[in-house]
Amino acid sequence: MFTIAGVLVVVGLAMGVPSMVAGWSVLGGLLNLERHDVPGSFSVDIDEPGDYTIFVLSGSQQQTGFVTTSNSFTVEIEDVGVTSPSGAVLTTFPVFNTYIQLENEQFSSAVSFEADAVGRYDIVLDTDPATVAVVSKSLAFPRLGLILLGVASGLTVLSGLVVGLIAFFRRREERSSRSIASDGSW
Hints:
Strands 1, 3, 9, 10, 11 and 13 form a six-stranded antiparallel sheet that branches. The protein has a four-stranded antiparallel sheet with strand order 2-12-7-8, with no helix packed on it. A three-stranded antiparallel sheet has the order 4-5-6, with no helix packed on it. The model has no long low-confidence stretch (mean pLDDT about 80). The chain has a domain at about 35-140: Sandwich (Jelly Rolls), CATH 2.60.120. Helix 1 (about 1-30) packs antiparallel against helix 2 (about 140-185). It is α+β, with helices and mostly antiparallel strands. It starts with a helix and ends with a helix. It has two helices and 13 strands; from the N terminus they run αβββββββββββββα. The protein has helices at about 1-30, 140-185, and strands at about 35-40, 40-45, 50-55, 60-65, 65-70, 75, 80-85, 90, 95, 100, 105-115, 120-125, 130-135. The chain is elongated and about 90 Å long. Strand 5 (about 65-70) and strand 6 (about 75) form a beta hairpin. Helix content is about 40%, strand content about 35%.
């Protein structure tokens, strides 16, 4: 039983360490986001295809249909244009209730787009009044996967500890009953 407990703990830790490293890389990417003054246009270099989110500086956010309303402005789908390195205009999608905190400032998700190739993407963002925008790899799916892996890891380690405790108390009980049987004092 101690072997099973040990295997469960080792497997749980083996799952947990990569999820912590991956989680750090996702969150670490947020520390190096380039800020862009908007309204206006800017370019971002994307080195990994995938889903990306454009965040705008705000204090609070409210969602109504396909409209993101910040404490002082609204970003609508038609206010954002994204052009791929090949010159294709990409479709943007609303993103609901995703926030990031950078240097004591709250950024709210505005829209997302899918970058299908590595390269320079041109973004036009029409906001009123002026604010700051950042572009980040989308956080929803990586976060969900890391959370699920972390939960599975924690449950595996916990199972190993429970099995270990059961094995410990059973062995202790067996020794105690052997000791009483060999004494003959019952």
